[in-house]
């Protein structure tokens, strides 16, 4: 009997050790390469990567509710002046103290990062002056009334002035300047393979569960799923919709899903008078850009079968969109309905605009940014072909696509874009960044793929400056109505967040679709 109990104890000890070892490291299969410089290339995956090494003044929980981070409190002193109280006792990974000077440096660095295809500038566009009253108190003055400034600062990553003052983006990539105040420290990065972090034992917040986090970079959807099934990774993001049902039936896999904040939409370039991607039916460039005519833009919208995209391309893991913010969010306009599929109506509009036989058009999009992005482009092209347009499809890696699609280049005619609304949990940032006419000095329109509407610009600017929330919401709803009426954007659908794990891991999916190691925990 004594030997029996000894054996049981040994088994329990070994099991406990094994479980503890398993909890020490997590391997996450991710879709995209990281930009370790947290001020370079503003896209959701990079924001998610940065949250492991760095922190921001404010943050968001999994439901996109704003929470304190490096700022413990903030208040508006007047319409254009904010006071932020900073957290004391926070240390950077090198042991140096976090102070207001690091915030001031970070805010000023963002607009000056060279060659960023999608800069973070719009998050600090309204900051006219920032100064420290003391090491833990900031006064920030804006040039316009900006009621969502604290939310925007959730995208303003704070770097060490001492370390980053002379650092380049390449220095961050090599790890030399990747010194933050976050829960993890930089360990190594092998492009195209893996990005490894180790726990920061001196982290000021809740201590991370995992001693080590390895991001395996697996851009191919099928390969990412195969790695999960083989046990090579513990968690995968951006689960392809076609695989969800199969994974849910596997007793060794757990699937977590929820509606996200991201709306996928099209933008017709009405800035260019001529475009190499708009031709006659024989392929000769047209002298007049048909997309300048709102009837043509409306025809494109009517020709798209959103329900078919959601069910057939997205396998039910998306919801048809009527506007650029999902239902249930602040500033969503319930009076705007999803455009009905009406190919005959689309043909009539084309004829009224002077294109009864259509014209040639190329739809551009990324092939590694949004869920099934290249498939969506193909589906859109097929639908537009049915109303007489001679369609072509060209998809590119996001690092190339965004630099060519967005302002100031605006190269393409019809662009697929996505926007996550968690930044301010309302439409202000989306409209000012993606729809407002490009204005480099003010940081407006930095995500604009090529449309301009002065009437819409004025309405956006007025709405963005309204302090009273009820009045601002009404004004934003009216702006969205105007944008939809003029088809300055063509909403398609809202994505879902879908994450899968091996048995033994639990994960809380986020509205903002970011993949964060601290949202994963060991599970029975």
Protein architecture, described:
Helix content is 30%, strand content 24%. The longest helix has 23 residues, at 2-24. Strands 1, 10, 11, 12, 13, 14, 15, 16, 17, 18, 19 and 20 form a 12-stranded mixed β-sheet that branches. It has helices spanning 2-24, 44-53, 100-109, 149-152, 161-164, 169-173, 221-230, 241-248, 294-302, 306-313, 343-352, 373-385, 398-405, 428-435, 454-464, 469-485; strands at residues 25-30, 55-56, 58-60, 66-68, 71-78, 81-86, 127-134, 137-142, 157-158, 184-190, 194-199, 212-217, 235-236, 253-268, 278-279, 318-320, 360-366, 390-396, 414-420, 490-502, 505-507, 520-522. The two termini are 30 Å apart. The chain is of the alpha+beta class and 524 residues long. α9 (294-302) runs antiparallel to α11, α14 (428-435) packs antiparallel against α15 and α15 (454-464) runs antiparallel to α16. The protein folds into 2 domains: 28-217, Periplasmic binding protein-like II (D-Maltodextrin-Binding Protein, domain 2); 261-495, Dipeptide-binding Protein, Domain 3 (Dipeptide-binding Protein, domain 3).
- Mean pLDDT across the residues is 93
**Structural domain tally:** 2
- Which regions are unreliable across 5 or more consecutive residues at pLDDT < 50? 1-22
What is the oligomeric state here?
Answer: single chain
Structural class: alpha+beta
- Report the sheet with the most strands, covering strand number, pairing sense and barrel closure: 12 strands, mixed
Overall shape: it is globular
């Amino acid at each position: 009997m004594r030997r029996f109990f000894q054996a049981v104890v040994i088994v329990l000890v070994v099991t406990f050790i094994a479980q503890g070892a398993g909890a020490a490291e997590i391997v996450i299969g991710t879709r995209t390469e990281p930009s370790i410089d947290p001020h370079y290339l503003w896209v959701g995956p990079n924001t998610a990567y940065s949250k492991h090494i760095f922190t921001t003044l404010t943050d968001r929980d999994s439901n996109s509710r704003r929470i304190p981070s490096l700022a413990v409190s903030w208040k508006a002193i007047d319409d254009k002046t904010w006071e932020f109280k900073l957290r004391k006792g926070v240390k950077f990974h090198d042991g140096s103290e976090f102070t207001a000077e690091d915030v001031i440096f970070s805010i000023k660095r963002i607009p000056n990062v060279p060659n960023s295809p999608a800069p973070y500038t719009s998050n600090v566009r309204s900051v006219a002056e920032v100064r420290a009253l003391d090491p833990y108190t900031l006064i920030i003055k804006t040039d316009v009334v900006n009621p969502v400034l604290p939310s925007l600062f959730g995208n303003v990553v704070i770097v060490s002035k001492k370390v980053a003052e002379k650092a380049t983006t390449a220095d961050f990539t090599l790890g030399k300047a990747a010194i933050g105040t976050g829960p993890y420290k930089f360990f190594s990065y092998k492009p195209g393979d893996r990005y490894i972090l180790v726990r920061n034992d001196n982290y000021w917040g809740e201590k991370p569960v995992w001693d080590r986090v390895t991001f395996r970079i697996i851009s191919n959807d099928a390969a990412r799923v195969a790695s999960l099934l083989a046990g090579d990774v513990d968690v995968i993001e951006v689960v392809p919709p076609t695989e969800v049902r199969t994974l849910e039936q596997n007793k060794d896999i757990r699937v977590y899903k929820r509606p996200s904040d991201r709306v996928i939409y099209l933008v017709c370039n009405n800035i260019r008078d001529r475009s190499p991607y708009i031709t006659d039916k024989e392929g000769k460039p047209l002298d007049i850009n048909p997309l300048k005519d709102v009837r043509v833009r409306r025809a494109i919208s009517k020709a798209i079968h959103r329900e078919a995209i959601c069910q057939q391309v997205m396998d039910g893991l998306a919801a048809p969109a009527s506007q650029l913010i999902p239902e249930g969010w602040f500033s969503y306009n319930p009076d705007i309905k999803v455009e009905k599929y009406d190919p005959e109506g689309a043909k009539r509009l084309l004829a009224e605009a002077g294109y009864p036989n259509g014209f040639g058009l190329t739809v551009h999009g990324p092939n590694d940014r949004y869920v099934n992005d290249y498939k969506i482009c193909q589906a859109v092209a097929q639908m537009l072909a049915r109303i007489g347009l001679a369609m072509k499809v060209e998809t590119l890696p996001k690092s190339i696509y965004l630099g060519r699609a967005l302002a100031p280049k605006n190269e393409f005619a019809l662009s697929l874009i996505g926007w996550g609304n968690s930044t301010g949990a309302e439409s202000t940032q989306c409209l000012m960044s993606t729809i407002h006419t490009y204005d480099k000095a003010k940081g407006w329109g930095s995500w604009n793929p090529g449309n301009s509407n002065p009437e819409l610009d004025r309405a956006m600017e007025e709405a963005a400056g309204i302090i009273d929330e009820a009045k601002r919401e009404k004004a934003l709803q009216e702006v969205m109505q105007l944008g939809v009426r003029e088809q300055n954007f063509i909403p398609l659908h809202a994505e879902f967040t879908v994450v899968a794990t091996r048995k033994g891991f639990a994960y809380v999916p986020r509205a903002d679709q970011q993949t964060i190691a601290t949202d994963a925990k060991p599970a029975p």
